Amino acid sequence: MSKPKPKSEERQYEADLMKRVASHDQQAFAELSEKYSALIFSTAFKVLNHYEDTEDVMNEVLATIWKKADTYHSRKGSLVTWICTTARNRAIDRVRSVQRRSALYDRYEDKVQGDAPEARTTGRETLYQSDARQVLKSAVVALSPEQREVIELAYFEGLTQKQIAEKIHSPLGTVKARIRRGVERLRVSINDRLKGEGTLLLNSVSN
Description:
Elements: H1 7-22, H2 26-48, H3 51-68, H4 79-115, H5 123-141, H6 145-155, H7 161-168, H8 172-190, H9 195-206
């Protein structure tokens, strides 16, 4: 069994390895991945407690290391600390992203249910409406953050385009363009699957 390297040697090894990765040395990256993938996975899993999400985060962290290896400086800390911090932060970001999406889904469900006319529907109609709402919610969540922001302000808070521009400190023309592009993306994404119900909901956003 080989003895562990002295701390100074280990730090120099880490610095050299990251320099090679920063120069896009595929062999160095393979070496780093083999050495630290388990550490990245275990660090992220402690936060996420979800196997598939942890795998995604691990791959994201490795991709980040490949792209930003030149930002690592051994004098600021060990590579293990840097990698663990990156993995933990990325895992926390994933948790927050899931929470935001869940909250957004809930808000859309409340809005759609609140707008729905009171009338008796058949089981088939209820199923259609449920599927339609899911399509719409998924499409909105998939918008860019900028487009989603202005559509939420227009749709949920009922703000005018001028009020939105003042609220987010953006030119009115920018707000109009974002709303227009966002609604168009929704139309393309939803296509004709929502038919009348989808048109009604989209019109309430774009007016």
